[in-house]
Amino acid sequence: MSSADKNLSVFTTEGLPDISAKKFAIVVAEWNSEVTEKLFEGAYQTLITYGAIAANIVRGNVPGSFELTLGAQWFAQRKDIDAVIALGVVIQGETKHNDYINHAVAQGITNVSLKTDKPVIFGVLTPNNMEQALERSGGVHGNKGDEAAMTAIKMLGLYSEVARGYYL
Ligand code: RBF
């Protein structure tokens, strides 16, 4: 399926791990908050739907997507947090800053994930315009927040399988 047609809320759900004891942090950028709030709702609801406990989901806000990296790191460094989901929207074309911000956040999130050895999920939309952003945050293309939460769940599942020697 091409990424243009993909519904971001459609994913395979076989063999998902028990996440009832897992703790999640969702870091949300305030820029384009009409979209990032929808991403948050999608991520939060997906975690709950697949077994997370509300008390085990914490939220932190950062001013813009550029700050997601450091915000994610502060949560990922906490021993009790198992996975972090970073949500933002950087609209292309409104400013040339988008390339700098997108690359910095993608690289930064990767670094935090590797440094802390935890799933730190890149849930940053990079649409061409607000219409595309809305289509991907609860519109015709589903919700990237759902997908980001499911990615966190699947990575926790893979981690526990690898740690248990499942692939030996
Ligand atoms: N943050 C976003 O999350 N999305 C944006 O589309 C966005 N556009 C920006 C455009 C410009 C020209 C600037 C200076 C900042 C923008 N930011 C955006 C904010 C950025 O992520 C960060 O919060 C600030 O640059 C402060 O470090």
From TrEMBL:
HAMAP family: Lumazine_synth (MF_00178). The lineage of its organism: Bacteria, Pseudomonadati, Bacteroidota, Cytophagia, Cytophagales. The active site is at H97. One of its GO terms (biological process) is riboflavin biosynthetic process. InterPro entries: LS, LS/RS, LS/RS_sf. Pfam families: DMRL_synthase. Coiled coil: none annotated. Keywords: Riboflavin biosynthesis, Transferase. Gene3D superfamilies: Lumazine/riboflavin synthase. It comes from Dyadobacter pollutisoli. This is 6,7-dimethyl-8-ribityllumazine synthase. The gene is ribH. Catalyzes the formation of 6,7-dimethyl-8-ribityllumazine by condensation of 5-amino-6-(D-ribitylamino)uracil with 3,4-dihydroxy-2-butanone 4-phosphate. This is the penultimate step in the biosynthesis of riboflavin. Belongs to the DMRL synthase family. (2S)-2-hydroxy-3-oxobutyl phosphate binds at E94, T95, R136. It comes from the Bacteria. 5-amino-6-(D-ribitylamino)uracil binds at W31, S65, F66, E67, V89, V90, I91, F122. It catalyses: (2S)-2-hydroxy-3-oxobutyl phosphate + 5-amino-6-(D-ribitylamino)uracil = 6,7-dimethyl-8-(1-D-ribityl)lumazine + phosphate + 2 H2O + H(+). Pathway: Cofactor biosynthesis; riboflavin biosynthesis; riboflavin from 2-hydroxy-3-oxobutyl phosphate and 5-amino-6-(D-ribitylamino)uracil: step 1/2. GO terms for cellular component: cytosol; riboflavin synthase complex. The keyword Ribonucleoprotein does not apply. Its EC number is 2.5.1.78. GO terms for molecular function: 6,7-dimethyl-8-ribityllumazine synthase activity. PANTHER family: 6,7-DIMETHYL-8-RIBITYLLUMAZINE SYNTHASE (PTHR21058:SF0), 6,7-DIMETHYL-8-RIBITYLLUMAZINE SYNTHASE DMRL SYNTHASE LUMAZINE SYNTHASE (PTHR21058).
